[in-house]
Amino acid sequence: MTRDEFKEKIKILVKQVYKPDYLSDEKPITLDAPKFPILEKFPTLKEIIVGLLTDQFELFIVDIQWVAPRPTTFRVILGNGESFFLTYTPRSWVAKIEGKSYYLSNIGEEEQAIQSLARVLSYGQQAETTETAGEEGETETAEEPTETPEEPSEEPEA
């Protein structure tokens, strides 16, 4: 075996044995920032949101805000401007949608929460304010009739 062959064998063995952490297949390197970084800190929150909205929740959610540390409470802002709260308790997660609390450990209440959330999502997009309409120069005003209806005359016809 020549010296060059020996060097090549060592290079091959080193590549097989030594694999840096940043090249591991577990976490691929990406330059894209996650849309909701809070979900990386709280993985159970992601499970609950997927349970309520399916795995395509990113289409319906604009932002997730951490509101309170104890009890851990999150505000989930939907695409139509509405929001609901998710609170972590030692026994289960609690969803507060339109002022009503749903304990997500109970299957019946979880289904009610899903239906309530579907109702909130069906409200549609948030209406534009009058300021944006005024900037565009297009305001809609209903015109009222300026003429009064004619009253029948009381003169008898001959």
Nearest-angstrom radius of gyration?
31 Å
For the record, give the distance between the C-alpha atoms at the N and C termini, rounded to a whole number. Answer: 136 Å
Q: Report the count of strand segments.
A: 5
Helix coverage percent: 25-40%
Query: How confident overall, as mean pLDDT?
Result: 78
Major sheet: size, sense and barrel closure?
5 strands, antiparallel
Strand order of the largest sheet: 1-2-3-4-5
Shape: elongated
Assembly status: single chain
Features:
single chain, alpha+beta, 5 helices, elongated, five-stranded antiparallel sheet, 158 residues
Short description:
By secondary structure, the chain is of the alpha+beta class. It has helices at residues 3-17, 38-41, 43-53, 107-121, 130-136; strands at 61-68, 73-78, 83-88, 93-97, 100-103.
Tell me the layout of helices and strands.
Layout: H1 3-17, H2 38-41, H3 43-53, E1 61-68, E2 73-78, E3 83-88, E4 93-97, E5 100-103, H4 107-121, H5 130-136
Antiparallel strand pairs: 1-2, 2-3, 3-4, 4-5
